[in-house]
């Protein structure tokens, strides 16, 4: 058993930590989040140049052949800075999916430009009625010669506004809730019949709802096998859960540390409020929740890497804990900062908001507890 | 022991229901039902409608309203029906806070000058208590008022001042003397917001709304006659007011309405082959909340009953503050949970209610409400402070 990172991993961890520390201060983060695009184009180029974008993509697909551990380290550092650049959406969710299931042609046309920072991607898996169930798909794709014609609606597609290509799950056979019969299609953002409604999300990021009306795609735009899209999605979301959990762990660390520092300096009743035992115990609980998350994150990431039989169960356990701890740490960080905690000006409320959305994205605590039980 | 309402109480309830059918303005109702934030004019208009009927300042003594007072049960029924119909929450700063101070501690001249315009909602008040350095430890406040001839010269800053952007007047706790016991040098002063030297700066909160403000005082001249009570009596007045503020703080009727709404809406959200409300995990959370809510309701009723027999709301009101705010937060959280991904699209106040929002038509205000309600366990004496009060005053620890 070994919980240390190898040399290259330590190097990348330092590199990303330094970037967040030196080039991603709070003002910068807020101005990027509030900009038209919602993130920094130059940062994205920089990530590409430093090799971060392709770090976990296999060498066969044009990446650097790293594992989920490298992604975890990047995401954890991003979580500390509440980085808004869509690494999760483009590289982990969509890029990872193409890496694992895409054809050579798809890898060179999508993954290579993505690694080079020249293409943005998004994965459209949720629908108004689906909640967190990946196999609840109403959007349908009908065969038309060598083409498919797509009709339907996709909800809250993260990074939708910037995405050049969107990976869309659609039903090619079976009924609404069946796991079998789903297929993943590559849809061009400019495709005729595709309408994006773009908006900001509460965590300062961007998303879209998609109306899909008679959008025509070719059969070469199918990722993986026809009717086997559920396995593709399920695998992509597992990786995405590991990544977003790492981000959450980074955010939790900042929140509990910021809170501890604040209570050391904020004085009421003639003393630092951190001297009050009731607050001390609260912060101890925040700290322990963070540590527990980190433990499950390492455990689940390693099980996933090793292809353990119970990796999926570990991932659901992790996501449950992240939801529970993220809520507790976020709410208590706000509470202990008092009125300041609810201001837009202070970063604490924004970390709380991201932990709130992370708690829901890819399934909330109820969903993963149920899944954990069933596995 | 008896839970039944009398014939006359039932008749009173009917009167409230028909009043609401006839007098609750349609345009305000529509905005309220869609959870669109109201303008100042709409709130004032509704308060005037209530006052016309004599149902606005229901806790004022009859000397100042000229009306017979409602019984405790009638007040309970009125508030329940107003909440059930989702009428706008009345603004407490004038009617519920400043006025009781004035009619309890003020001079005859102050009563005549200020009470009628509060009753008629012609003057909007805000509350100047907290300061950047004085939150839970309110008595450490530093805003200074020095008497020079017949005027107080006020310097300092107040924070978290709710709706100060609309206010004509502010009631303030100020320091008139530096004393060894910090509570003793505090006084209660009424200040016209139009006086030169006052500046209001918005504080934007995490829900994106502008509800609270900083209020700065730079050599603001206040006539001596605007002092309420005596110099140094401010802390006692503040304590009197806090007890006033806490009764009814639980907002039980509104919580019952929101919980019922949560059930209704979640019964329409598909989950697999059933609905979200049929999901045992979600349903259990609703039921746990319902039981806690019922307990809090009856804790409040027991407090009210004791008050009607001459008791005063003491430290027991801290129980209601804690339980009420915890319930408010839990329910706002369940709404977020209900929506799943559609809690995430984020719109500003002026966009809520527009046609550009995505998801269910009730979705847009849900997350802002959840975020905004993190304040309820912080304001009015944080829940940590309330637990200190209970531990000291009730448990004797």
For this structure, the quaternary state is: heterodimer
Number of domains of chain B: 3
Mean pLDDT of chain B: 93
Number of helices of chain A: 11
Report the uncertain regions of chain A.
Answer: none
Helix content of chain B: 40-55%
Description of the molecule:
The complex is a heterodimer of chains A (375) and B (397). Chain A has helices at residues 7-23, 26-33, 41-49, 68-81, 87-101, 104-115, 229-265, 277-306, 311-336, 347-360, 365-374, and strands at residues 121-124, 140-144, 147-158, 165-171, 182-188, 194-200, 206-218, 222-223, 267-268, 271-272. Chain A is of the alpha+beta class and 375 residues long. In chain A, a hairpin with a 2-residue loop joins strand 9 (267-268) and strand 10 (271-272). The longest helix of chain A has 37 residues, at 229-265. Chain B is α+β, with helices and mostly antiparallel strands and 397 residues long. Chain B has three domains: 7-90; 125-233, Butyryl-CoA Dehydrogenase, subunit A, domain 2 (Beta Barrel); 247-394, Butyryl-CoA Dehydrogenase, subunit A, domain 3 (Up-down Bundle), CATH 1.20.140. Chain B has helices at residues 7-23, 26-33, 40-53, 62-65, 72-84, 92-105, 108-119, 234-246, 252-266, 280-308, 316-339, 366-372, 383-394, and strands spanning 125-128, 144-148, 151-158, 169-175, 186-192, 198-204, 210-223, 227-228, 270-271, 274-275. In chain B, strands 1-4-5-8 form a four-stranded mixed beta sheet. In chain B, helix 6 (92-105) runs antiparallel to helix 7 (108-119), helix 6 packs across helix 8 and helix 10 runs antiparallel to helix 11.
Keywords:
heterodimer, A: 375 residues, alpha+beta, Butyryl-Coa Dehydrogenase, subunit A, domain 1, Butyryl-CoA Dehydrogenase, subunit A, domain 2, Butyryl-CoA Dehydrogenase, subunit A, domain 3, 3 domains, four-stranded mixed sheet, four-stranded antiparallel sheet, globular, B: 397 residues, 13 helices, 15% strand
